[in-house]
Amino acid sequence: MKILVTPTSLGPESGLEAMKRLREFADEIVYNEKGRPLTEEQLIKALEGCDGYLAGLDQVSGRVLREAKGLKAVSRYGAGCDRVDLETARELGIPVANTPGANAEAVGELAFAMMLALARELPRLDASTKKGGWLRSMGTELSGKTLGIVGLGAIGRVVARCASGFQMRVIAYDPFINADYCREHGIEALSFEELISQADFISLHLPLTEETRHLVDRRAFEQMKDGVILINASRGGIVDEKAARAALDTGRLGGLGLDAFEEEPPAGSPLFDCENVIATPHTGAHTREAAGKMAQMAVENLIQMLTGEACPHLVR
């Protein structure tokens, strides 16, 4: 049994129990030695002769799946599956599984950390102080402010829980919102338009689909309050980055935190010369705790699919 493993945090030196189990199960494991998501050509080459694929942030196109003769299963190390051509996978009879909820705490905490850092201008103050400066800035408190959460799934609920500790008003939009959950936790369910017009902070936690691509565009920015702080720790294509730069220039956006980009890694982004932008390398799920949980689920999913056992996390 030959397995390809591409998440950069699951290399050959990984001491995670899940990876020990995978090494015991597989006859051969091929690792990602590039230190970043593989290109289409690199994936096609790496998948030669592989029975299973434990996938990271690589774009698993229809061509990749068709060229991967003998591939029997794809297990995503993460909850999102927008990087996998699911239609082609179904056509070829290749089951795909993911790890829902395993990284919720990690991603939710990162999103909230970005809010705090931008509200108090920590990146700018840190850089200035280290250069000998002694700036006086006027930050913003989170207490009493309105947080709009777009996507109230497992990660969005972590962010809502954090906000409750700061006495924030929490509003949420989700096309499949759970009204009972909202009532139980004091969350106001609103339309997307109502949310973006009322929120002082907005945190995005959505999958990338045709409906959500550039959901936050020029028109959406025009409906927001001046000085709003926006966090995207989900998928890069949800925010129109050119429109975001324009909103930063006018002051409509008071701060922007991005853990995901339209192009990854981002090359020469126009956002990077803005002091009120925090950019991180899609690192939301990168905590020791989340890595262990995701690896455990991803490896179990892969072994179950390859051995014909029932896998509870198949993507339908």
If you had to describe this structure to a student in words, what would you say it looks like?
The protein is α/β, with parallel strands linked by helices. The chain has two domains: 2-102 and 288-307, 3-Layer(aba) Sandwich (Rossmann fold), CATH 3.40.50; 104-279, 3-Layer(aba) Sandwich (Rossmann fold). 37% of the residues lie in helices and 15% in strands. Strands 8-7-6-9-10-11-12 form a seven-stranded parallel beta sheet, with helices on both faces. α10 links the parallel β9 (201-204) and β10 (228-232). The longest helix is centred in the last third of the chain and has 20 residues, at 288-307. The mean pLDDT is 96.
Strand order of the largest sheet: 8-7-6-9-10-11-12
Give the biggest beta sheet.
7 strands, parallel
Q: How many E-type strands?
A: 12
Secondary-structure content class = alpha/beta
- Name the average pLDDT: 96
Label the CATH architecture of the largest domain.
3-Layer(aba) Sandwich
Strand content: 15-25%
Number of helices: 12
Name of the CATH class of the largest domain:
Alpha Beta
Give the helices and strands as they follow along the chain.
EHEHEHEHEHHEHEHEHEHEHEEH
User: In terms of per-residue confidence, which ranges show pLDDT below 50 for 5 or more consecutive residues?
Assistant: none
Instruction: Find the CATH superfamily of the largest domain.
Output: NAD(P)-binding Rossmann-like Domain
For the termini, the CA-CA separation is: 25 Å
Number of domains: 2
Q: Using the CA coordinates, give the radius of gyration.
A: 21 Å
Shape: globular
CATH-defined topology of the largest domain: Rossmann fold
Helix content: 25-40%
